[in-house]
Design goal:
Two copies of one chain form a homodimer. Chain A is of the alpha/beta class. In chain A, about 40% of the residues lie in helices and about 15% in strands. Chain A is built from twelve helices and seven strands. The first copy, chain A, has a seven-stranded mixed β-sheet with strand order 3-4-2-5-1-6-7, sandwiched between helices. In chain A, strand 3 and strand 4 form a beta hairpin. In chain A, helix 1 packs across helix 12. The first copy, chain A, is globular. The two termini of chain A are about 15 Å apart. Chains A and B meet through helix 2, helix 7 and helix 10 of A and helix 2, helix 7 and helix 10 of B. The structure holds adenosine-5'-triphosphate (2 copies) and magnesium ion (MG) (2 copies). The site of one magnesium ion (MG) has 4 residues of chain B, from helix 1.
Amino acid sequence: MGKVYTLANQKGGVGKTTTTINLGAYLAYYGQRVLLVDLDPQANATSCLGVDKLTVRGGTYEVLIGKSPAANFILHNPRLKLSLLPSSPALAGAEVELVGELAREYRLRQAIEPVADKYDYILIDCPPSLGLLTLNGLVACKDGMIIPVQCEYLPLEGLGQLTQTIDRIRSAVYPGLKIRGVLMTMYDGRTNLATDVVAEVRKHFPGKVFEALIPRSIRLAEAPSYGMPISNYAPGTPGAEAYAALAREILESDGVR
Amino acid sequence: MGKVYTLANQKGGVGKTTTTINLGAYLAYYGQRVLLVDLDPQANATSCLGVDKLTVRGGTYEVLIGKSPAANFILHNPRLKLSLLPSSPALAGAEVELVGELAREYRLRQAIEPVADKYDYILIDCPPSLGLLTLNGLVACKDGMIIPVQCEYLPLEGLGQLTQTIDRIRSAVYPGLKIRGVLMTMYDGRTNLATDVVAEVRKHFPGKVFEALIPRSIRLAEAPSYGMPISNYAPGTPGAEAYAALAREILESDGVR
Ligand SMILES: Nc1ncnc2c1ncn2[C@@H]1O[C@H](COP(=O)(O)OP(=O)(O)OP(=O)(O)O)[C@@H](O)[C@H]1O
Ligand SMILES: Nc1ncnc2c1ncn2[C@@H]1O[C@H](COP(=O)(O)OP(=O)(O)OP(=O)(O)O)[C@@H](O)[C@H]1O
Ligand SMILES: [Mg+2]
Ligand SMILES: [Mg+2]
């Protein structure tokens, strides 16, 4: 059975999508079978892989409302060796449509189960909120959540609210929710702000912060406009090396390498 | 009657809060009476002004669910000459609580009316989503919305979805919704990505993009940890100068200066 990790943080712009795409790409590069699930109505993960969200036949929305099994919509890119369950703007309506439904938080978890044994890693990208979509993502991550934290003050501030939400989810819907790790992103070692934030996060999450520090690198911001991960767009650059190191660190601690 | 502008963009981390605080601070610096409304459960605008969101007696949440008039909770900072209707984590529950209510989109607009004539400018900071809170913010902005756009590809990509949502709001709830302006943020002129994005946005929003370009500046990211706007924390730095220029540009085109 493969691992299922969810990328979540209600603070916007901290690197959830960038981590989903590039960690996924390097796990595939190291020979793993990888599925990415785009749970964000913005469909950023979908467009980062060069897929046009407006032409998508179906995806996460259809799966969540129970119209169709996930296998019908999973796209595969043989060159990147990555699979994707794409998002579409229709997903924005799912939160309201599911409000009254039974077991609405378990929809994604149930939808992934039939395809789970085809993959070694499933990574789920969440929107910047703590609504029903993110809740579905957190209930589905049987092996834990990965929390990207931008090395700045406001993202640091938001961690308190996130841990409260995690506690609430554990007591109400999914006692097994755990933190797989906290990832520091957009790190600029020249600034005191970044080094202070890293020290602070390490204090609050002892033993949970990944060794790999993702540096701020313009190449990471450029790659999405070419529809490819950093492993293809600019291998060997600091951003690419950092995500490769993160993939190795995760494989090692998962006992795969 | 003062002007009411809402800062909105569902893309996370584009500078909505940073613009609300620092544009607000410079409008006050130029003698305007300014109220900031924090409509984000993250309560970032509240903490940027040094207010502890966990000790707030009441704020936007109480006002939206109709418990109490806004005037009861507005905090005033005489040193900064800024007023704030603070947020609190309880606001996260408002979306679900209001789902079945009548005229749920108009709550904020109705709540602001009794205090509107005490201020020359009211700026509303929205969360990174297009849910009921942002909808309230957009129905309340009688003088238009300000759209911060980070000078990178994924924020550019999100503009299509934002304009579709604006069209939907115009036809369904608020025909008077208009765009006051688009603000380019975290601009780094040394990269082609930034200059390409600015050119692209100017093409899609002819005549709507503010002249003022907000540069990427570490001082802007540091200021929130000191609980003060850039006008107090690091006046004279490029980030401060850019927000001062934006305030002057808005005052001029509003016929105030
Ligand atoms: N390490 C990095 N260095 C430079 N730019 C980065 C880095 N990581 C992400 N970015 C850029 O920063 C912006 C925000 O990143 P991203 O969209 O991945 O964050 P997110 O948390 O998924 O955002 P949202 O909350 O909107 O879903 C994007 O333009 C992205 O290209
Ligand atoms: N011009 C700038 N230069 C450098 N850093 C900036 C600039 N503007 C904002 N920041 C920093 O970037 C991060 C994102 O900005 P901010 O929180 O204002 O965006 P937002 O759109 O309000 O985010 P959210 O979507 O989470 O509400 C913050 O850490 C902020 O301090
Ligand atoms: Mg994202
Ligand atoms: Mg904000």
